[in-house]
Amino acid sequence: MEETQGVQNAYLISENKTNSLNIIQPEEVEFHHPTTINCSFTVQEKRIILRTEVYWMIGDPRESYIYHPNPDYIHPDYRGKTRLVDGSNLLLEDFHGPDNTTFYCRVIIRRCLATERHPGLTVTILEDGAGTHLLVKGNTWYHAKILAVYVGLKAFLSLLLLIAAMMSRVLVLLMLCLWVRLHETSGHVCVDQPARTESIEGTSVTIPCQFSFPETKNSIESATFIVRASDENFCRGDDKIIYNSSIVFFSPKYQGRLNVTFDLRHRNASITINNVMQEDATQYCCRIELSFLDGKKRQWQTPDGTRLTVKDRNEPGLETIPLIFAAPGENVTLLGHFTSDNLTSASDVTCHVKRTADRGTGCDRGINIGECTYKNNALYFQINQVTSEDNAFYCYQVKMSTNNEEKNTYYYLGPQLLIIGG
To answer: Which phi-psi region, left, alpha or beta, contains residue 151 (left: φ > 0; alpha: ψ -120 to 50)?
Structure first.
């Protein structure tokens, strides 16, 4: 089978309003117990959307999450008091903050702009809503007038800033659109999966895959999901196939340990490896092959797949999130939670955060950017006023002793930080 050639994913970064994403939230809401703050958004060309994520942030500047899929990132005052309803609305069960506090709905989408001639191009867009002011019950008429003046001035200033920013970006956007139109053949086909993940011997690990294509499901005659495992680029070689949905093939190496889901309607799949072994450490590539009613066939996969690192079963485990999105100027916290019970007796713990430009560089060869904090069985490290230079992969170097044993050095994968905007 002829391999599809591709390029590394490229990210067009935008923090201003675009035609592809429009967020709507109310100007103000009066607080009750509980209160729901609505957030709706429209996305153009939904069939080429690879990823959609919704967060809620509070205050100016927006440094604290009031809702995040990972509760550890939520401000302590609101942890356990917020959740998403209907996919994007914020349910606020309790609030003790100041009057007129502003809540921002943040939406992140990753769109596929790839073509068969120029595959692999994606765009990640981060947008914040205009903000909703939470009015504490009992507001006076004076407070309402002050709020109206504030909102009016803020809207005017935001409009001026938007116009100035758009003037500098519109040329870039037009050039990108023109490039895509000139090189487009039959639409966008992408597969998206995490760059890397980590697991411990004897446990399970799941690798999610999302894919996009412009055609409707009704135009597809058949679809095949294939998983390859190899250290080579594109996981090359038919002998590297560990799963094929069309013939329900499982590699003998993974027989009884591999669970695969494939949902064409929702355009996603997942690979779960149970009872992980050291020899499972390699990269895993998700591949989609489509046959259409008009006789055409298309296929695509990520160039590099997901790199799996397998740690010794005796090493303490650390849970982190694989990807963090942020806007320029924000403060970003990297954190990881130890999962091993024997860490309750850990002592003399020292931790350093290292940065690498790519996922393949080992943590021991990364650039040391500072010392992190160990507290309550977790690691914390804050990067202030992030810029595009902070776009990188991060990892932890931890030295500690457990159960009165000698001090050992452990390396753990941290998140990839993606700064969107600027």
So the answer is: alpha
- Better pLDDT: 261 or 213: 261
Distance CA 387, CA 151 (A): 29
What average pLDDT does this structure show over 278-305? 89
Who contacts 79 (Cβ-Cβ below 8 Å, separation ≥6)?
71
Q: How far apart are CA 248 and CA 243, in angstroms?
A: 7
Q: What are the CB-based long-range contacts (under 8 Å, 24+) for 206-209?
A: 206/270, 206/271, 206/272, 207/270, 207/271, 207/272, 207/284, 207/286, 207/306, 207/308, 208/268, 208/269, 208/270, 209/268, 209/269, 209/270, 209/271, 209/286
Q: What is the pTM (predicted TM-score) of this model?
A: 0.77
Residue with structure tokens 């931790």?
351
pLDDT tens, position by position, 49-86? 888 999 999 987 677 899 999 898 999 889 999 999 99
- Helices (DSSP H) in 286-338: which residue ranges? none
Distance CA(250)–CA(277), nearest Å, equals 17
Measure the CA dihedral 398/402/405/411, to 10°. -20
Q: Which residue, chain included where needed, has tokens 């870039």?
A: 172
Tell me, rounded to whole angstroms, the distance of Cα 181 from its chain centroid.
Answer: 28
315: helix, strand or coil: coil
Give yes or no for a contact between 104 and 56, defined as CB atoms under 8 angstroms apart: yes
Domains of the chain, earliest start first: 13-183 (2.60.40.10), 190-310 (2.60.40.10), 316-419 (2.60.40.10)
**What is the average per-residue pLDDT within 1-18?**
36
Q: What is the pLDDT of residue 253?
A: 93
**In the chain, what percentage of residues exceed pLDDT 90?**
48
C-beta contacts of 175-182 below 8 A and 24+ residues apart:
176/12, 176/113, 176/123, 180/113, 180/115, 180/121
* C-alpha angle 29-30-34 in degrees, rounded to nearest 5: 100
Partners of 397 in beta bridges: 352, 411
